[in-house]
């Protein structure tokens, strides 16, 4: 029976949050409640993605569950688990906590909430496992940090959440508080994101690899007529494949008095790709 339950696509997001269904009853499955821990009390309908716990009374859809679990994850992010991730990613615990980093004891994963553009709601949760940040199944892609734009005239755009945090740390060293945004992947830039960049100065710092270069081409084609100014990082060719902002931060930690200035000198008006590739993006 367990093998059959594992094939329910509608359960994928629940499993990513630590839910482990053990039985099937009609249109529902049930297992231990991931909110209160009560054995075999959490019922989920894989088709509607509605859930309820017969013990704690919790109920709702995936959005409600994300809100409840995120609070639990944030509280668990402390001590050894926080220091382990800090060391692994080369980011301070303070910065990780600032962004609501959490820890899921149920499946030994880290979690990162993505606020809505207004900052008043939870857009989604990213799960860090096996050195990869993944969206919850069914989540709609959002820009990490879009809630911080406000009236800012200058924006930094990175490829990935770790790079965003690393760049924020470097900017803070110079007491610069420009908003830093992160796309969930180099190839993702949605049409409805363009208004966020209207009349902004935008610095694009994607990874030093083929997906990153193609991604900058996509950004160029999407907002070249929207942003007031655009420039793009051109990493030195001798850098390793996939070299990124976080690598730059780790490489220059405590070794450069003006590493942000050196980073700015790598920015150019055009993406690090030829015009033909830009047209195809």
Give a summary of the structure in a few sentences.
The protein has ten helices and 14 strands.
Unreliably modeled segments: none
Q: Output the strand order for the largest sheet.
A: 1-2-3-4-5
Helix content: 25-40%
Number of strands: 14
Beta-strand residue percentage: 15-25%
Query: Rounded to an integer, what's the Rg over CA atoms?
Result: 21 Å
Instruction: Let me know the average pLDDT.
Output: 92
- Largest sheet entry: 5 strands, antiparallel
Distance between the termini: 46 Å
Structural class comes to alpha+beta
Shape: elongated
Number of helices: 10
Structural features, described:
The chain is of the alpha+beta class and 281 residues long. The chain has ten helices and 14 strands. The chain has a five-stranded antiparallel β-sheet, covered by helices on one side. The chain has a five-stranded mixed β-sheet with strand order 11-10-12-13-14, with helices on both faces. The longest helix has 15 residues, at 62-76. The N and C termini lie far apart (46 Å). The relative contact order is 0.09. The model has no long low-confidence stretch (mean pLDDT 92).
């Amino acid at each position: 029976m367990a093998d059959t339950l594992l094939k329910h696509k509608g359960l994928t997001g629940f499993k990513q949050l630590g839910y482990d269904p053990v039985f099937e009853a009609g249109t529902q499955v049930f297992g231990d409640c991931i909110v209160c821990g009560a054995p075999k009390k959490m019922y989920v309908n894989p088709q509607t993605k509605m859930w309820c716990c017969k013990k704690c009374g919790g109920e709702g859809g995936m959005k409600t569950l994300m809100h409840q679990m995120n609070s639990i994850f944030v509280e668990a992010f402390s001590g050894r688990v926080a220091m382990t991730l800090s060391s692994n990613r080369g980011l301070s615990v303070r910065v990780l906590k600032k962004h609501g980093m959490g820890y899921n004891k149920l499946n030994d994963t880290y979690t990162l909430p993505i606020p809505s553009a207004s900052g008043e709601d939870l857009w989604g949760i990213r799960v860090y496992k096996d050195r990869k940040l993944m969206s919850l199944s069914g989540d709609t892609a959002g820009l990490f940090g879009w809630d911080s734009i406000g009236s800012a005239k200058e924006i930094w755009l990175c490829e990935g959440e770790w790079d965003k945090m690393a760049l924020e740390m470097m900017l803070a060293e110079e007491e610069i508080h420009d908003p830093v945004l992160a796309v969930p992947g180099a190839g993702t830039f949605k049409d409805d994101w363009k208004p966020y960049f209207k009349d902004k100065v935008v610095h694009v710092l994607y990874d030093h690899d083929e997906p990153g270069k193609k991604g900058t081409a996509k950004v160029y084609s999407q907002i070249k007529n929207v942003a007031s100014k655009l420039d793009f990082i051109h990493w030195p060719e001798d850098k390793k494949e996939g070299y990124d902002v976080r690598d730059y931060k780790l490489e220059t930690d405590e070794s450069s008095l003006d590493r942000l200035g050196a980073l700015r000198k790598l920015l150019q008006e055009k993406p690090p790709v030829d015009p033909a590739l830009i047209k195809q993006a």
